[in-house]
Every structure is written in C-alpha cells, then in structure tokens.
Amino acid sequence: MGTNISNVSDKELIDTGIVRAISPDLSENLPQFAKNLRSFPLGTRNCYTLRPEQRKNNNYLIRATFLYGNYDGENWQPVFDLHLGVNAWKTVNLTNTDAFRYYYYDIIHVPLTDYIDGRALVKIWGDDVGRNDSENAFRFTYDVYDRIWSPLLFDNWIPIATNSTVYSPNNDNPYKLPDVVLRTAAKTQNATTPLNLYWSPPDSLSKYYAYFHFAEIEKLKAGQQRELTINLNNERNLTESVKLDYLNSRTIVQNDPPISGKRVHFSIYAAEGTN
Q1: CA-to-CA distance for 89 and 214, rounded, in angstroms?
Q2: Each residue's pLDDT tens digit, 145-193
C-alpha cells in the first residue's frame, strides 16, 4: 500500500556509517526506502541527531525500520542495541528472520529540548479488529500520524463492518482515529461469550497503558444499546460499563494504575443485564 509519505536522505543526520544497497535479487517487490541502508562496521555507538520542525514539548512518533537484505553477501543477520538518547529502547535481533522483509519498531517521544533525547513511550502494537491478517495494514494517509493498524480477527470472532462514517466525539479529538479502522469490528456468538485477547508483554516489570477504541456500527432495534465491561485477568474490571452510541467512537484508557505482568488477559463482556 502506498503512503505518499516523502522520504529524505539521512546524510544531514549522521556523519558515520556506510551507505549500501541490498542484494538486487531481493529488492524487486520492496518499497524504495527499503532498497538502501546504512551499515555501521566501525565504532561501538553510532548516533543520529534529529531536530523536529515542531521542536520541543510535542509528541513524536519515531519509527526505526531495519532490513538486512544480504547487502554484504554474508547471509548473516545482525544483532544490535537501539537507544533513544541515553535510554535503552530495543535489542534488534534479525537472526532467523527473512532477509527480504523489513521490521519496524515504534516509539512515542516527548523531547524536552529541540533535538531528540530522553524519555519516551514504546508502542507495542495497534490492532484493527474485524479484518483478517491477509489484508493490508492501514497507515498514512488513512492515519494522519502514520500509526500502523494491523488486521486482527480470531477464528471464533464474528466480523462486522459498515460503509457509514464513524464520528469521533469532536473535531479536536486527540486520538485522530482513522474512520476506516473504526468501520470494522468483531463480536461473539452470544452475549454470554466474551471477546478474549491474550498478550505476553516483553517483560513483566515494565508498566503498560492500554487504549480501547470502540464504536457501535450495527444498527440495533429501537430501544437497544450495546453496553460493555472490560475485565483484566479475571481479577477486576478496568472501568465502569461502557455504553456505545451508533456510529460514534468511544475511547477507554487504562493508565491508572498501568498494567504489568508476565501475561495479560483482556475479556470484553456484555454488561450484566444487556445483550
């Protein structure tokens, strides 16, 4: 899927490394930005300096994309550490990955200076519920922030969709959710069966925030309204019940307290006494 995002050279951002091209036999079906790379054969640390146009105290989505592409003819995928400022971000391990696929890691960052350095939130995943994994992920231009919304539909979920526009609460909605993502959803066979989602965090000590974006996209009978509860690990409900209005989005944020643990189990139930 084309994004119409303009790409610029990194030559003004870093003065180390060597620009290389991936193996020609692997590049045919790749986007242009993935056909060239910068390798760092020298030095223990090589640094980019980013100076965003909006400057400090704004939110920035930073995406680091990596593809080995057998650029050196060695058929040996690297392992290396990625930092943002002084903070460890991610160990990138391309071992046993496809040499012709690129892998990306997102982080949300609020710089305290006019250049990138310091505290950040790592984006783990963003799912577009109601579409199967054979379909393309949605990103820019559908999403003005170029967040990547990957299709998610389990075998026991029933997909539902609408062609109607789904509205956010107001024009200055801070999430700026793509309408195309809100037009698909999933449900179960009956009100007594929850939607279950299991997740194993990268580590059990870090704190995680969860954002649930809901929209009622089925036209229910007069007097009917869908009402949900979100349960965590069969231990507690994250919020009071959530009522949904037709073709209007609703966002539920779980950040107080944040979530942690070795395994996280979300269950979305019909609220007691509702269908």
Answers
A1: 30
A2: 889 999 999 999 999 999 999 988 765 577 889 999 999 999 999 888 9
Nearest to 228 by CA among 187, 259, 257, 179: 187
Q: Which token pair is 264?
A: 């996280």
CA distances from 199 to 38, 210, 232, 260 (A): 34, 11, 11, 11
Judge if 117 and 172 occupy the same domain: no
Question: By the 8 A CB rule, do 102 and 36 touch?
Answer: no
Q: Are residues 90 and 177 in the same domain?
A: no
CA dihedral 164, 165, 166, 172 (to 10 degrees): -170
Instruction: Say which residues have a Cβ less than 8 Å from residue 62's Cβ, sequence separation at least 6.
Output: 50, 84, 106, 107, 108, 109, 116, 120
Q: What domain count does the chain have?
A: 2
Asked if residues 39 and 94 have their Cβ atoms less than 8 Å apart, the reply is no
149 lies in some domain:
no
Q: What three-state secondary structure class fits 163?
A: coil
Domain that holds residue 182: 156-270
Model pTM? 0.63
Inter-residue contact 64 to 50 (CB < 8 Å): no
Question: Per the domain annotation, does 141 fall within a domain?
Answer: no
Statement to judge: residues 28 and 79 lie in one domain: yes
Q: Which two tokens stand for residue 79?
A: 């392992």
Going by pLDDT thresholds of 50, 70 and 90, the confidence category of residue 274 is low
Q: What is the pLDDT of residues 198-255, one digit of tens each?
A: 988 877 777 888 999 999 999 999 989 999 999 999 888 888 899 999 999 999 988 7
Q: CB neighbours of 164 closer than 8 A, spacing ≥ 6? A: 183, 217, 247
Statement to judge: residues 164 and 259 lie in one domain: yes
166 and 87 co-located in one domain: no
